[in-house]
Amino acid sequence: MSPALMRVLRVVVLLSAVRGAPLATVTLPPVILEPVPLEPVPVPSEPVRVDSGADQNISIPINTEQQQQQQQVSLDVDVMLTGELNPNHYPARRAAQVVLHHLNTRYGSPYWWGALRQVHKATAEALGDSGRKYSLEVTLQDQISGTKETCTAEVVFPGGPAGGPPQVTTSYEGKSEINTQAQEEALYNQYNTSQNLLSGHNLPDSYGHVAPGMEPFWHLGGVASSFVMLKESSENTLYNMAQVVSVTQLATENNQLRFNYDVLLHEMVSQEIIHWKLLASWSPQEGVKASQMELLPKCHHCEPPQEH
Q: Alpha-carbon distance 282 to 62, whole Å?
């Protein structure tokens, strides 16, 4: 007999005893209890520690999809930034782009302007407080002649609050297969003796066109921009030059042709267009120098360059 029926019978007996009535026979209908199906409870695999407010913690199993995604992202970041890297992914290509800017500042001219063609291999190594080192094998291409060359390089992004520009060492030895000396001498002589100082705008224009006579000064602006991009580069940036807004020749000084450049740089991670003013100088003997670099107010009407 169930506990519920026993309680009913006790009540009946007590009432009968109090009122002096004889005991009555109570007939109750049978009670049929159907089993209630229970849903299976999933057993999670990841425990999480929850503070109970006492001196000990209670372990409660939990395993949500969001937690799994966060763990996977964290794992991907760790794999991405240490050891062997995917040559096509951002961390490897950012470091390789720094190598390109470094080589442009050393070997660039109106007739040699490098571009990153391919990253073949890349590894990253943490250096503790000193930063992070990337070891790379890359192919560079001269945008003017189309000549390609493969080299190895190391890029160290300094750590700590001081930071600083990345440090680059490379096996690249210069324009070994290209001789542009005659072209450079002719261009230098033409603009060193000219009474009319050069000026130009929008290189390239909105259609991707550059007038043939202005191409060397577009290349020169790209090389000069590499001085800024090398200085500003970090593990979280990827810079390209978008456009020479304007170029104006100044009077020759110390046998150097001098130019004021306004350039737009495309920071591809943030998709920002950044406006810089440069004072660049060049001669065939001394190469390209950028002696002054000034960040101008943000260009709100500028948009990332279109592919042509």
A: 65
Task: Say which DSSP state 301 is in.
Answer: T
How far apart CA 14 and CA 190 sit, in angstroms, is 126
Q: Is 205 exposed, middle or buried (0-12, 13-18, 19+ CB in 10 A)?
A: exposed
Torsion of the alpha carbons at 87, 90, 94 and 96, rounded to the nearest 10: 10
Residue that the structure tokens 């810079």 belong to: 239
Q: CA 60 to CA 64: how far, in whole Å?
A: 13
How many whole angstroms from its chain centre is CA 22? 93
DSSP string, 140-181: EEETTT--EEEEEEEEEEE-TTT--S-EEEE---S-TT---H
Cα–Cα–Cα angle for 161, 166, 167, rounded to 5 degrees? 120
Cβ–Cβ under 8 Å, residues 60 and 50: yes
Q: What are phi and psi of 135, to 5 degrees?
A: -110, 130
Reading the chain (308 residues) residue by residue, the pLDDT tens digits are 555 555 545 544 444 444 444 444 444 455 444 554 544 444 444 443 433 333 333 333 334 443 443 443 333 344 446 899 999 999 999 999 999 999 999 999 999 999 999 999 999 999 988 899 999 999 999 999 999 999 999 999 998 777 889 999 999 987 666 789 999 999 999 999 888 999 999 999 999 999 999 999 999 999 999 999 999 999 999 999 999 999 999 999 999 999 999 999 999 999 999 999 999 999 999 999 999 999 998 766 666 555 44
The CA distance from 178 to 147, in Å, is 8
